[in-house]
Amino acid sequence: MTEQVMAAIDGSKFSEGVCDYAAWASLALDAPLTFLHVVDNHPQTAEADLSGNIGLGAREHLLEELSHLDEQRAKVAQEQGRLMLKAARERAVEDGVNDPAGRQRNGTLVETLEELQDEIRLLVVGKRGEAAHKASDHLGSNLERVVRTLHRPILMVPDTYRKPEKVMLAFDGSKTTRKGVEMLAKSPLFNDVPVHVVIVGAETGDNRSQLDWALKTLRDAGHEAEGAIRAGEVEATLRGYQEEQGIDLLVMGAYGHSRIRHLLVGSTTTTMLRKANGPVLLLR
Fold first, then answer.
1. Rg for the chain (alpha carbons), in Å?
2. In the 8-state DSSP scheme, what is residue 106?
3. What is any Pfam family matched here (predicted)?
4. What is the Cα–Cα distance from 254 to 79, expressed in whole angstroms?
5. Which residues pair with 239 in a beta bridge?
6. Eight-class DSSP state of 190
7. What is the mean pLDDT of each run of 10 residues along the chain (284 residues)?
8. CA-to-CA distance for 80 and 233, rounded, in angstroms?
């Protein structure tokens, strides 16, 4: 089965960013692009149940009417989804992608992606979804569940596209982040893009050895790479380096074995992703 770049879109303001970053990734990876829209037939915001306030006969009639409204609502949602997929494919073609596909499914986003993950080489999602409050800077609950469930690389993107010019990999020497270095070294996604490898910790012989290995692996594969070891609190140190160096894409392992593990499985994960102004690539 062909692995593809899959982009999840909805009616949120992040969908344009998802389209453009997905097109960039599809072209860089020379991989097919598929846009996915999931119609959730069980919205999280429940409507008031007024059926208990009326007589039995009228109640049965009202339930029939509510069922009819649900059917109509589902049809409208499906038609909206078809239009969004059409617009996304047209936008991707304008970006240079050849024959992008569109798929619409019923269900929940997390369950759908889990079912389709064998087809996914890279998943592109927005920082928040349509159901999130427009004034909120919090992550969508769907995104958090997707990150914890899916065993595929996930690119979380902002609402506006900017071609990545500098990439930073948060590295701790764990099996996951070493695999991340090897994935970056082999992947054409960041060809001709400088890669910064950053270890948050003390300047020890072991950390220096780990950093030297990462840089050599990337450079042997033809990448421009530089590295740093910085002491401090993980989140603040990574963000400070990112701002200092003008990094516009952050790469992290979704699970590690040191402080980066706690960063990405505890509440700090949400903080790190929520405060990110640019795209974040999570590796598994």
1. 22
2. E
3. Usp
4. 35
5. none
6. G
7. 87 88 96 93 49 55 72 78 92 95 92 93 81 47 78 91 93 86 92 93 95 97 95 90 93 59 49 78 84
8. 45
Q: What own/partner pairs with CB < 8 Å and gap ≥ 24 does 131-139 have? A: 131/43, 131/44, 131/45, 132/12, 134/13, 137/274, 137/275, 138/270, 138/274, 139/270, 139/273, 139/274
Please state, in angstroms and as integers, the Cα–Cα distance from residue 43 to each residue in 38, 73, 107, 148, following that order.
Answer: 12, 11, 10, 21
245 Rama sector, left if φ>0, alpha if ψ -120 to 50, beta otherwise: alpha
Beta bridge partners of 280: 156, 250
- As to burial, measured by CB atoms within 10 angstroms (0-12 exposed, 13-18 middle, 19+ buried), residue 244 is exposed
Report CA torsion sign: 186, 189, 195, 199: negative
Q: How many CA atoms lie within 13 A of 191 on its CB side?
A: 10
Calpha distance 91→85 (Å, rounded):
10
> pTM higher than 0.85 for the full model?
no
In whole angstroms, give the CA distance from residue 13 to residue 82. Answer: 17
DSSP-assigned letter for residue 235: H
- CA-to-CA distance for 195 and 248, rounded, in angstroms? 11
Report residue 281 as tokens.
């690539």
Q: Please report the pLDDT score of residue 266 as a whole number.
A: 47
Tokens coding 18: 């998802």
Q: Tell me the domains of the chain and their CATH numbers.
A: 4-43+76-157 (3.40.50.620), 167-282 (3.40.50.620)
Quote the CA–CA distance of 161 and 98 in Å, as a whole number: 19
123, 155 Cβ separation under 8 angstroms: yes
Tokens 């991707």 correspond to what residue? 92
Long-range contacts of range 127-132, CB-CB < 8 Å, 24 or more positions apart?
Answer: 127/14, 127/156, 127/157, 127/158, 127/159, 127/273, 127/274, 127/276, 128/12, 128/14, 129/10, 129/12, 129/14, 130/10, 130/11, 130/12, 131/43, 131/44, 131/45, 132/12
